[in-house]
Amino acid sequence: MKRCLWRSIFGAVLLLVAVGGVEALELEGAFTQGGLVFGRTEPGSQVTFDGQPVRVSPGGLFLIGFGRDAPPESLLRVVGPDGRVEERRIAVAPREYKIQRIDGLPEQMVTPSEAVLARIAAEAEKVKAARAQTSEETWFAQGFVWPVIGPITGVYGSQRILNGEPRQPHFGVDIAAPAGTPVGAPGEGIVTLAEPDLYFSGGTVIIDHGHGLNSALLHLETVTVRVGDHVKPGDPIGTVGATGRSSGPHLDWRINLFDARIDPQLVIGPMPKTADRE
Fold first, then answer.
1. How does pLDDT run along the chain (278 residues), one tens digit per residue?
2. Strands 73-79 and 46-49: what pairing?
3. Are 268 and 145 contacting, i.e. CB atoms less than 8 angstroms apart?
4. Cα angle: 210, vertex 214, 215; to 5 degrees
5. Which residues pair with 190 in a beta bridge?
6. Is 261:225 a contact under the CB 8 Å cutoff?
7. Where are the domains positioned within the chain?
8. Beta-sheet strands, E only, within 83-167
C-alpha cells in the first residue's frame, strides 16, 4: 500500500520559518490553487488564515488550503502562546485548467426538470451537513493512499461548457477501473455519509479526516460502510461503479478542507504504475 506521509512531521520540511514570538513555523504542501498545506507551530498558538480562525491541535498541527480559483496571495497569522505575533503573506501560484465545449446536447441533459432540481437541492443539503461534521482528531497526519489504482481519466479544475452554458468545474480526480473493483478508504477517519444513490454522484461515501479535511468517493456500485464507521487507509468502503451521472465505471475522489476544494493529486502524488496494492 503506497502512502503519502506528512513529511514535515516525519522527515524533510519544505518551508521552515523562524518566528519572532514562536520558535518555529513549519509549512509543507502545494502553494498553488487547489493545494493543501500542512503546518506545525508551537502548542498553544492561535492561527488565522485570511482572517478566519484555523483549528490547531494540542501538538500544534494545523491545515490550510487554497481553492480552485484562490487569489494570488493569502495571509497567515500566528499568535504564539506568549502573545507575540507573526504574519506571513503566502504567494499562491495560479493554474491553467482544461475547458471542454460540448454543443448540441438534448436540453434535458443540460437543464434538469423541477422535480429533479428539488431532489438535487435536498441531496446537496445532506452532503453539506456531512462535510460540516469535523473531528478534532489529526488522522490526516497518518497520510493517504490511492483508493483505487487505474488510469486517470479526469483531473481537478477542468470544466465543461454545455450548449454554451458553463457547468460547475470538476473538483476531483477520476480513476477508471472495472465495475466491482474494491475501493479503499484513502485515509483514516470517520464515515459521515454513506448513500447508495444520489442524483449526480450515485453511491457516495464521505470520510472526515479531522480538522475539516474530508474525502468524498463517488459513483460507487456498492457502499459497504455505514455512518459512524471508523476506517483506516485501504479499508474497503465499496466498489467501483457507474452510478449517478456517469458515462462509465470509474471512481471520482474529491477532497475538501471546509469550503476549499483541494486537488487530491497534489496531496498524494503520482499514481503508482503497478495495479497491485502493496
1. 445 544 433 333 444 444 444 567 899 999 999 999 999 999 999 999 999 999 999 999 999 999 999 999 999 999 999 999 999 999 999 999 988 765 554 565 567 789 999 999 999 999 999 999 999 999 999 999 999 999 999 999 998 776 677 778 899 999 999 999 999 999 999 999 999 999 989 999 999 999 999 999 999 999 999 999 999 999 999 999 999 988 899 999 999 999 999 999 999 999 987 544 33
2. antiparallel
3. yes
4. 140
5. 208, 230
6. no
7. 7-91, 99-268
8. 85-91, 99-102, 152-154, 159-162, 165-166
Whole-angstrom Cα distance, residue 198 to residue 20? 50
Q: Could you say which architecture CATH assigns to the domain 7-91?
A: Sandwich (2.60)
Place of cell 495495479: 275
Q: Which residues of 139-173 are buried (b: 16+ CB within 10 A; e: fewer)?
A: bbbbbbbbbbbbeeeeebbeeeebeeeeeebbbbb
The model's pTM: 0.88
CATH 3.40.50.1110 fits 99-268, yes or no: no
Overall residue count recorded for the chain in this entry: 278
